[in-house]
Amino acid sequence: MTTRVQHALDQLKQSGVRITPQRHAILTFLMESMGHPTADEIYRALAPRFPNMSVATVYNNLKMFIEAGMVRELTYGDNSSRFDADVSNHYHVICEKCGKIKDFTYSSLEDVEQKAEEMTGFQVHGHRMELYGVCGDCREQ
Known about the structure:
Helix content is about 45%, strand content about 15%.
């Protein structure tokens, strides 16, 4: 088990959350895949190991992870939320053909928050950015 997963599990235990085998598996899958899966994809990946687990169990655990600040829900208008266990400040590039999502970071975009505050008087709490294009695999086809 990665130290990142163990750290997350320790955080949950400290906040009084019981670590069930399903909860452990969902969190591990999210943190190790880093592929921005949907709840259905998580369910399908784990169902062979947990035949009594339902999609509702996956959704309920994802909601709890979101509330604990360990997972972000990403919505892109296609009616299927994706989940990201990387809660650091980063951005996404999304393939318009296959839907693959890749992470990237670019530090100077934080200047945009400061400029937005200056121009609008808002107190900015964060931002989100997605770029759209066609991934290398789809371009080769």
